[in-house]
Amino acid sequence: MKIVYCIDSVCRVGGMEIVTIVKANALAKIAGNEVWIVVTDAKSVPIRPLEGVHLIDLGVNYFTEYYGLTGYYKKNRLHKERLEKVLNDIKPDVVVATGQSEKNFLPSLQLVSKPLLIREMHIEKFYRLREKARNVKERISRWLSQQYEYRWKIKGYDYIVVLTEEEKERNWKGWKNVSVMPNPITSVCDVKSTCEAKTAIAVGRLVEQKDFASLIRIWGKVTEKHPDWRLEIWGKGELEAALRQQIEESGLEGKVCLMGYTAEALQKMSQASLYLLTSMFEGFGLVLIEAMSVGLPLVSYMCPTGPKTIIEDGQNGYLVAVGDEKTFAERVCQLIEDEPLRKQMGQAGLKESEKYRIEDIAQRWMQLFRELLAKKSSRRNSR
What we know:
- The protein is α/β, with parallel strands linked by helices.
- The chain has two domains: about 1-185 and about 355-380, Rossmann fold (3-Layer(aba) Sandwich), CATH 3.40.50.2000; about 200-355, Glycogen Phosphorylase B (Rossmann fold), CATH 3.40.50.2000.
- The chain is built from 13 helices and 13 strands.
- The strands form two sheets. Strands 3-2-1-4-5-6-7 form a seven-stranded parallel sheet, with helices on both faces. Strands 10-9-8-11-12-13 form a six-stranded parallel sheet, with helices on both faces.
- Strand 9 (about 230-235), helix 7 (about 240-250) and strand 10 (about 255-260) form a beta-alpha-beta unit.
- Helix 9 crosses helix 12 (about 340-350).
C-alpha cells in the first residue's frame, strides 16, 4: 500500500510532527507498504530519524521565509502545483492530510490514482473560538475561518479521523464518515518513577492554551501546605517572560521552576512524582499518556478534549473542572500527603498506557485503511 502523509514540516518541534514521524516509521515496517512524508518546509533535519520513509520537500517555505498577503497567494498556488505533481508521480492509495497548509485544497487536486483522502485532526475542532480574541475583528475572522474549513472544505475528504470518542460525540454529531484513532506513545523510557521525589512536573509550550499561569497560582496554594515540594515546568514559548514575572511577584522562586526545552521529557517525568495539566483545550493530551508510561499519577483539568478519555477519575489520576484552582490544589495535596495512593495510581496509569503502543496503533491504522479502501472501491464499482 502506498501511503502519503502531508504536513507542514517535520523539522519543527511539536507533538503532531513527532507523532507523524513515529506512525510513518511504523507503517513503513509493515510488509507491502511504501510511505512518504511530503512537507512544505524542510530547511533543517527532521526532529526524529526517518526509518524507511521517503521525505519530499516541496520547497514552498511558508514558515521559514517572510512574505506578505500577495506572497501568500503565490506560495499557495505553487504549493498546489507541486503537491499535485508529486502525488501524481507517486500514485498513492491513501493520502492523509495532517498539516494546516494543504488541508483546504487537497480534495480539489486532480489526482490520477483517485486515492483515499483522510483528514487527520490533531486539535479540538473549535480551538479557534476557544482562544481569546484581541478584538471584534479578530473574533469575526476566526468565526469565518471556522465556517470556511468545517462547513465547506472538509466535506471534500472521504474520511475524517479524530483522536477521542469525546471529540467525535461533542463536535461531529451527525457526521457518518468520522472515526476515532488515538495517538501512540512516541517515546519509551525504561526508567519508571518511584513516586517518592518531592517534585511535580508539567511539560508543554509556554502559550495561552496551556494556561501555566493557572498552574502557578495552584502551586502557590500547594506551597502553603507543602513548602518542601517544587514544580518543574519544561518548555519554551512566547509567555516565558510573563510567567517568570508571575513567579517572582508570587514569591515562588525556587518553588516553581521554568526549566526550558528538553528533548528528554520522559526521563524528566521519571524523576518526578506527579504530572499536572491545566490546558484550556487539547487535541488529545499525548503528554498525559507519556506521563502514565513512566508511572506518574495525573491531575488534569477536564478540558476538551482528551483528559476525560485518558484519565479514569480516582483510578489513575484526578479530573478537575477547568478553572477550579481550589479543587485542583486540593487534589494535588491529597496525592502529596498519600504516598501509597500516588504509587497505586501511578501503577494503574502504567498499565493503561499499554493500549497506546505504536505497534498496536499502526495495525489499527492499517485495518482502517483497508476497510475504507474497500468501501471506496465498492462505491466506485457500483456506479
